[in-house]
Design brief:
Order of helices and strands: EHHHEEEE
Largest sheet: 3 strands, antiparallel
CATH superfamily of one domain: Ribosomal protein L22/L17
Strand order of the largest sheet: 1-5-2
Low-confidence stretches: none
Distance between the termini: 28 Å
CATH topology of one domain: Ribosomal Protein L22, Chain A
Helix content: 25-40%
Strand content: 25-35%
CATH class of one domain: Alpha Beta
Number of strands: 5
């Protein structure tokens, strides 16, 4: 059984979120919740919320299906981040001689998929 959680339009860069996701992929939800506060990235708090939401979704689905599931048996099957829209977060930076430089704020979408079966990844 699987469940997903999405966190969309988050104000973090895709690559920085992907670095944190790489650390928790394949681990149990409890292990990921212990690990995330120790990772020195601001986005780890948002990722922790998404992981908890996905785990709660899976436990709720299992309970409705008539087979209760302990939270210790929930594993992160896959997780990824994709780039959000870049056109709507344009900002200006003051520049010399009365000009202004434009830059875009990065936005990402996060998806977390959890399962009740442990998924073994490839070893490098």
């Amino acid at each position: 059984m699987e469940a997903t959680a999405h966190a969309r339009f988050q104000r973090y860069g895709t690559r920085k979120v992907a670095q944190v996701l790489k650390e928790i992929r394949g681990k149990s939800v409890l292990e990921a919740e212990r690990l995330l506060p120790m990772i020195p990235r601001i986005c780890s708090r948002m990722i922790s919320k998404a992981v908890r939401s996905a785990a709660a979704n899976l436990v709720n689905q299992a309970t409705k299906a008539g087979r209760p599931l302990a939270p210790e048996k929930v594993y992160i099957k896959s997780c990824w981040s994709t780039m959000g829209p870049m056109g709507n977060m344009k900002r200006m930076l003051p520049a010399p001689q009365g000009r202004a430089y434009t830059f875009k704020r990065k936005v990402c979408h996060l998806t977390v998929v959890v399962s009740d079966e442990r998924v073994m990844g490839k070893r490098k």
